[in-house]
Amino acid sequence: MASPRLETYCCPNRDAATQLVMNFQPEVFCGVCIGSASINLLLTILQLLPKKGQSPRKMPKASSSSTILLLISICDILGGLGMIFRSSVWLGFPGFIANISVVNRTDVWPSAFCVGSAMWIQLLYSAGFWWLFCYAVDSYLVVRRSAGLSTIVLYHMMTWGLAVMLCVEGIALLYYPSLSSCENGLEHAIPHYITTYVPLLLVLVANPILFRRTVSAVASLLKGRQGIYTENERRLGTEIQMRFFKIMLVFVICWSSNIINETLLFYLELQPDINEMPLKNLRSAALITWIIMGVLNPMQGFLFTLAFYGWTGWRVDLKWRKREIPWESMSSSTVGENTYPSPVNYQSNIHDSKKISTTDSQQTDEAISMLSEANTSSDERLTRSSPIYQGW
């Protein structure tokens, strides 16, 4: 899992609270991390692979939102691989890890592995947090028609730049001037914890606000498109709102235990002796949330794919056809499926003069389609029958 305690453990003179959680059943904890991360890795890849039985469709032009969702999944996969590698080394070479606690030593590889693996995990999950924030920003800008594929370059610069800067800054402040002197005071640890939890707290605070504004903007678009707000438009707005709710629900489930655990450990650090009997319940709560973190943090990737795409099934198609993003399928051409008539051809055959005024409508429809789920055939029937898409 991703916790600033992983970097703190690399200090030979680590604090008592870090020592408490890192020495609590380390074999069990590492096994839990490996199991959870492995399951997440397999299920996430299974979700992203193309499936048999899906009719091949023409791939529409990629959107910035679909690219961001893919990058979030990639960050989760790479972060999970880091957890598996770190925990496997801890289980397979206990003597190698034990050298981290030795203050005066000549072997630097244990500390290098400890710091490197912890930074890898923190960097990837921190980047995932920034990408999730960018997704909320992009969703709002798409509805406001102020975003596109050109903005993905700015998102890359912001995400990787801030993730690397905060990670390096936090590590540098924690280990300054050397590993043997880190954690001598809270002035070393607090900046490191702040740089770790800033992107997490940003998503918790800013994303719900941005999602709420996006839903309000979508409702305005649906009302203004035809001048009416039918049941189909209302249900489409509800689908978009539910998608945002599921994303935030997954995030809260996977990372609320980290905030609770860090609050408990920080309080224990301030106590003269954390082994006192009155603190027994707090110690137990800290250890329980520590194990919960090992289970839930790695599972974020798979749960996010469920929120993004829904369950895509077990039947994998290894022919590697181009796979259409589900929520973009509503605005793609259906020629060749013979399931739904093409609204574009229907309109062009009846009223050719309307082509002049369709550009603005298409931009509105594209903005809505990139935010909606359309994970089932019933959702597609609902959306395509909606007046919002009759201009295609």
From TrEMBL:
Read off the InterPro entries from this record: GPR143
Q: Which residues cross the membrane?
A: 28-49, 69-89, 109-133, 153-178, 190-211, 244-267, 287-311
Keyword Acetylation appears in the UniProt entry: no
Membrane topology is: Multi-pass membrane protein
- Write out the ranges of the annotated region (Disordered): 372-392
What does the UniProt entry say about where the protein is found? Apical cell membrane; Lysosome membrane; Melanosome membrane
Question: One GO term of the cellular component aspect?
Answer: melanosome membrane
* Keyword terms of this UniProt record: Cell membrane, G-protein coupled receptor, Glycoprotein, Lysosome, Membrane, Receptor, Transducer, Transmembrane, Transmembrane helix
Instruction: Write the protein's name.
Output: G-protein coupled receptor 143
Phylogenetic placement of the source organism: Eukaryota, Metazoa, Chordata, Craniata, Vertebrata
